[in-house]
Request: fold
Amino acid sequence: MTRSSQPTRLPADVYESAVAAAQAASRTVPQQIAHWARLGREMESSPTVNHRQISRVLAGKTSYDLLAEREQAIVRQEWAERTRTLREGLNYEAEFASAGEEYSELDDEGNLVVRRSTS
Reply:
């Protein structure tokens, strides 16, 4: 049986760094630590991966096109994770309802549906 998580002790400085980095990257602390673990795993498995360049691309300071293929793959994985995390936090229906606003969307058949506030 595979566990989805396992308790682990971390040095205080690593945890504190994860707290700061998580806030900057819009992640939870466990997500940040998992992200660092994935990056470390990728870097150790490929000594040609340039972590500094990956970090610069993720920070928007340099071009994705300048990366090697493996580095681009790591960046795409990170972008996908960031997008998934952001999308999980969205609930436009609740936001519109609490603001008393209506909104429009398409149903599964492509028909326009107007959602009116019930408040």
